[in-house]
Amino acid sequence: ETKTLIPDKTVQTTCTYCGVGCQLEVAVIDRKIRGIQAPKTAEVNEGHTCLKGRFAFQFYNHPDRLREPMIKKNGTFEVVTWEEAYDFVAKKLLYIKNKYGANAIGGFSSSRATNEENYLMQKMIRVAIGTNNIDGCARVCHAPTAFGMQQSFGTGAATNSIEDLKEADAIFLFGANPLKGHPVTGAKLKQAFMKGVTSIVVDPVKTTLAKLATHFLQIRPGTNVAILNMMAYYIITENLVKQDFIDTYTEMYDDFKNHVLALDMDALSELTGVAKTLVKNAAIAYANANRAMEFHGLGVTEHFQGSKTVMLLSNIAMMTGNVGRKGVGLNPLRGQNNVQGAADMGVQPHQGAGYLDVNDPEIQHYYAKKYRINKMPEKEGLKIPDMLNAAIEGKLKALYIMGEDTIMTDPNTNHSIKAFENLELIVVQELFMTATSKMADVILPASSYFEKNGTFTNGERRVQRVNKVIEPIGNTKPDGQIIIDMMHKLGYTQPTGLTYDAAKIIEEIADVIPFMKGLTWERLGTNGLQWPINADGTDTKTLHVNGAFKKGKGTFHHFDFEESPEIVEHGTNYPFILTTGRELEHYNSGTMTRRTDNQYLLAKDYLEVHPKDAKRKGVTNDDMVKIFSDRGSVTIPVKISKNVKKGVLRTTFHQPEVFINIITGSVGDKETLTPEYKVVAVDFEKI
Ligand code: SF4
Asked: Is 297 helix (H, G, I), strand (E, B) or coil?
């Protein structure tokens, strides 16, 4: 007998996982969340969710949830009151600040948390502590997108909206597998591919979309710059550039053109492993389209030449006039629900809220006035990898971490552990006892996204409401409330009052960030607003219309391919290139999805191995192998797959049993230090 359950109430909110930002309708019965559906009226997802979003509630009251503040005493966590925890942390932070200076303290913020909480977190580190040592998880994903697009266009965010897909007659997908990482957008792309749109995929892995694409360039991992230089070469030599657009709206094109024309296509074809004709045909298809829309993911950014690749993608769009109209542009598939928002709010060591340069004395004065203090910190802060190095060198003494499992997600785990062991104080605000929480001195239990109000900003710059569904469980508090309390203990009282009120924090954000001027809680409604949000509340679907680049003109940059130091230094002893990716069932480190039914669907990470490599190593499906690099080794089951080329391995990183970051390295994007998770020199053997 089946029984129909009628919810006591339903509340619309925004999914906590990926940067698509789907709207979810959450059903509550007897004060418990019992199910999720997607509202058909939601502009972003139009009644759809993915496998992750559908079950995105089961972790919230999991027995593993941290429910009480705790302080570690003699190696064991003991439950304390909030007052005891706050006093302990504040006393210790002020002691470290007095003894070593404010720059001995750092903060890691979180794309899991709301805009308001990220804004408060960066404010606490800058205003109540007095340092720019604030960074976030964009450092391990899309920092090169923000940096690269700022260099090219002046603004580090998606130029267009996902709805533009309906207008594009060519789609260029580079280094992304949205069917797994951004499933609702991925499904829209799949529909377009199946309907026969011109589609170009560049990836070292033969993904489902690659199989459906009209053009697929299966490159050797790490050769993105080389393949884009080839595409630019053929666009120029086939006379497919939009010279009017270039002359009117851009600068430095001739330098780029001359650089590209001097390149040796045979050599680049050899490097990338892709035949010249394939690249030429793809370049012609892209440039011939009336509206070509580009999407990229971590296969672009998590590389030694990540920022450079983003700038070259911008070049390709500009030289063909594919910027500033509907159905075109550069559209980074932001990995996390609020990674765009966290950067907008100032979770970066070199730019404060609204991307203003913290090194500029006028900007320092601007922030000091807005934050009602006398003086802002003057020196640019450290990025996460630099903070970890500073901890090892004994220069950084304390880390305050909000919702980030650094130990599991950052590369070279043993290096991270060494850094953490050197710290005098580690404070972690978290939902669960993660690998990072275990190393904390103090744990402050946070409320999940169901238990608070706020906003997330999705990958198309859309600020959307996060609506409270239930009261905070146990003795947890919203991250925003914890930060306000902590700032107060540190001697700074938040002008909006001592109670976290998202609507009031939004008023302050709108006052501080110029491109959020018209943002209010009420105006967001059920479908949000895309920034820039004008004073009258109107928003912006397309950036750079009529060449309106923030930096005046769009700028061309030129670069040569450079082999990753990972391959140069370790490639001889470790002849396989490991690249990492995601599965549909799980979200990043799996902290949340491993505590939902998704874990029943997929409970293992696998190593994908080409059949010829498997034969040579004497392994078959489900054999356990040891995979090792210069940093260490892990064991993992094998899945034989023709989706990777010979010499290339692929794995995921959702399960702590494998802990893949033990073997990933310290090479990062030169400009932003984003780790090169996509090129790891390894070898493997059957156990
Ligand atoms: Fe959530 Fe992303 Fe799935 Fe949408 S596509 S339901 S935002 S995980």
From this structure: coil
Q: Which range marks the domain in which residue 643 is found? A: 565-686
Q: What does the alpha-carbon distance between residue 420 and residue 397 come to, in Å, rounded to a whole number?
A: 9
User: Residue 231: pLDDT above 80?
Assistant: yes
Residue owning the nearest CA to atom 2 of ligand 1: 18
Residue that wins the pLDDT comparison between 393 and 590: 393
* In a shared domain, residues 20 and 42: yes
DSSP-derived secondary structure for 140-190: GTTHHHHHHHHHHHS--S-SS-GGGGGT-SEEEEES--HHHHSHHHHHHHH
Q: How confident is the model at residue 588 (pLDDT cuts 50, 70, 90)?
A: confident
Model pTM?
0.95
Q: What's the Cα-to-Cα distance from 492 to each of 16, 341, 372, 382, rounded to whole Å?
A: 30, 24, 10, 23
Give the model confidence (pLDDT) of 76-123 as tens digits.
Answer: 999 999 999 999 999 999 999 999 999 999 999 998 899 999 999 999
**106 and 177 belong to one structural domain:** no
33 CA → ligand 1 middle, Å: 18
Does 504 map to a domain?
A: yes
Percent of the chain with pLDDT over 90: 88
What CATH number does residue 14 fall under? 2.20.25.90
Among 44, 52, 180, 449, the mutation site with the greatest number of ligand 1 atoms within 8 A of its Cβ is 52
CB 55 within 8 A of CB 448: no
Asked, for residue 489, whether it belongs to a domain, the answer is: yes
Q: How many helices (H) and strands (E) does the chain have?
A: 26, 26
- How far apart are the CA of 377 and the centre of ligand 1, in A? 38
The number of folded domains in the chain is 4
Query: What does the DSSP 8-state code read for residue 447?
Result: P
Q: What is the CATH number of the domain that holds 295?
A: 3.40.228.10
Centre of ligand 1 from the C-alpha of residue 25, in Å: 13
Last residue of some domain: 297, 316, 331?
Answer: 331
Tell me the CATH number at 678. 2.40.40.20
**Position 1 pLDDT exceeds 70:** no
> Does one domain contain both 133 and 252?
no
| Distance (Å) from CA 401 to ligand 1 centroid | 25
Task: Give all strands (DSSP E) within 406-511, no chain letters.
Answer: 425-430, 442-445, 454-457, 462-466
- Atom of ligand 1 minimally distant from the CA of 24: 6
Q: Indicate the helix (H) or strand (E) that contains 311.
A: helix 306-319
pLDDT-above-70 percentage for the chain: 100
Residue 32 token pair: 């418990």
Helix (H) or strand (E) holding 243: helix 243-249
Q: At 547, is the pLDDT very low, low, confident or very high (cuts 50, 70, 90)?
A: confident
Ligand 1 neighbours (beta carbon < 6 A): 15, 17-18, 20-22, 45, 49-50, 52-53, 182-184
CA of 263 to the centre of ligand 1 (A): 42
Query: What is the three-state SS of 393-424?
Result: CCCCCEEEEECCCHHHHCCCHHHHHHHHHCCC
Same domain, 577 and 616: yes
